[in-house]
């Protein structure tokens, strides 16, 4: 059909289907006009078609995590993640280091992929979906995993403010600013490494106990009885009754012995510690165990086994590399641990010229606790055994990481104990019952997971190994 230069349209009589634009046979609307497609139009149509194609390509594209990429080199993949680092080189080149929690991936975006609007506004900490082919990096170049993603398409998922997290904090920020922005800090390489090690270490503790035949329990942390002194109790109103946040799950573990035998738990404990020290938290993860029919010697051996076996497991795990990244000089402890009784510890301090803050030596009768403060000059793992059937495991740099003891198992002795401490035995009836219904010599211990990690990772401050540390005047985020 040849179109006349002048087109006739008629809203009433015309038809876009049957009309031909003549006066006799008008179109309904002026829209209906055919012409040979122009070059620009063709280009646009092709572009649209290509975009549609990629869309369907991307729909079926398998999504993979960064840690799975090595065997997928030379294949097209789709990766979700956060923009960890961003570098623009000229107008046509954009380097992204993508982070997805499983690893880091260098990605290259070229031409239109970085010249588009999203490419121009992209900021660190934004979330994106990247599509492309994984290629080994050229000789002499370095990238995480030894490969990089050559993008052919990408989508913005969540745009972060310009500058990413840099507006909230940086390496030089004040400690309190860093703690207020801990939710951003944990995205950083160092803190996330620590959290990853912490996850593995927790698993290794569990594996240790399971391999030794223990059962795990999850005791309540809202309690009406106390284990340690009242001065570090967090009190709370429990539907009109006085209750506390637990300081230790020891008492509940003891009740499990007749039911489950060797038992452990990994639960939160709370201490209203008034002082700011680098090894005290007000909430911490307490790894506790109790064992029936156990001697004092058994207790010491089990503690040695616990520490050495867990370290062994960590070093055999993929987290070992992270551990050495953080603490390159780490040396696993050697068995046997040095065993010192209380008297020997006092002598040891004198021999090593370690004095109290007031410049005098520790004397017999003073609680072992001050020992911990000075243990950082010691390079050895050490048991400090007190006169009272208690044992502490002391580590270089952090001091006490475990407190353990043989428990009172005689009913009368326990009742005496309540009286001596001025404790009303009434709410402890269930604990006392353990001594009436088939008592047995038993013992157990509590290990602070954060203290263990502080030692393992050689951190100065215990708060470094916490997700959101809790200590005096700090209860957020
Ligand atoms: P410390 O004398 O160091 O204050 P403690 O003797 O009061 O400790 P225990 O009641 O024996 O501690 O608790 C057992 C373990 O729990 C300790 O060896 C330690 O690893 C951990 N722990 C105790 N209190 C804290 C705390 N405030 N913050 C972090 N860990 C703690
Ligand atoms: Mn202790």
TrEMBL record:
GO terms for cellular component: cytoplasm. GO terms for biological process: asparaginyl-tRNA aminoacylation. The keyword Ligase applies. One of its GO terms (molecular function) is nucleic acid binding. It is an enzyme of class 6 (ligase). It catalyses: tRNA(Asn) + L-asparagine + ATP = L-asparaginyl-tRNA(Asn) + AMP + diphosphate + H(+). Keywords: Aminoacyl-tRNA synthetase, ATP-binding, Cytoplasm, Ligase, Nucleotide-binding, Protein biosynthesis. Residues 195-469 form the Aminoacyl-transfer RNA synthetases class-II family profile domain. It is found in: Cytoplasm. Belongs to the class-II aminoacyl-tRNA synthetase family. This is asparagine--tRNA ligase. It comes from Astyanax mexicanus (Blind cave fish). The lineage of its organism: Eukaryota, Metazoa, Chordata, Craniata, Vertebrata.
